[in-house]
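User: My instructor asked us to take a sequence, write out its structure as tokens, and then describe one feature of it. I'm not sure where to start. Here is the sequence I was given:
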Amino acid sequence: MKIGLSLADFTWPSGPVKLGDTIKAIATTADQAGFESIWVMDHFWQIRMNGPEHHDMLEGYSALSYMAGVTSRVKLGTMVTGAVYRYPGILAKTVTTLDVLSGGRAWLGIGAAWNEAESRGLGIPFPPIKERFERLEETLQICLAMWEGKRGSEQPLPGKHYQPQRLLNSPQSLTRPHPPILIGGGGEKKTLRLVAQYADACNLFPTPELPRKLDILREHCKAVGRNYDDIEKTAMFHFDVGDNGENIGKVIGGLKWLAGMGIQTVIGGVPHVDRIKPLEIVGEKLIPAVAGLEPATAGSAR
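Assistant: Let's start with the prediction itself. The structure tokens for your sequence are:
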């Protein structure tokens, strides 16, 4: 099992003046401790389940680019970009830039978007959900076309919502054939279908529904002729190991539970991450303990 770090709140006691130093310490520690990846939310306000809207929030790709400069190994991505936040060609260029500057460590994390208050507040168009999913699929198509060949596609790609005429992308991404794509969400009719058709990974919530969601993903893969085993199955979690590692056993138990339902990679937050010691405990005691944990197949997860 692989372990990823999620940074979802930047409201720390040291305040904005020290945010750069704190993020540098977190990222370098996670890089050295054996975390597979670091993820940040692509939100501009704090989201309701994490705290008040006015809590400190950084723009995701700027934060990832900063972390790319102070790390050497961890993968970097957003959990996840709302498809309506950026024009698709600009999004592909942004992820390409992160991939090039990080030496080939970028992911594209993406979803249909849900935060209407944030979007309305900042003047971002927020169409009905049907259109958001249409835009998501067109965005995936455009990003993949941008990552074709040496410099992207020279052909127009007319869609319902976007009509790019020339998807030039130079320099091209270092990761070939393209930076891996993770689609967040467990919607059974649309989201998991898009995972089967376009994505390299899915991201789901850690609930007892996981085996059923993965079975549905398997069916979508059959429908589109995709190898189900080629898709990485990831889930969110909470690595509360305790101040001195006293909760390690409980956390390992939770990870075994997820592996038993078919999850390969777990991405989560670490309480008091700014104190650094909890990250070190995860690296010393948790990551080695679950490194050999293998996911169950969908059939054996019941």
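For the description part of your assignment, you could build on this observation: Confidence is low (pLDDT under 50) at residues 298-302. Try explaining in your own words what that tells you about the chain.
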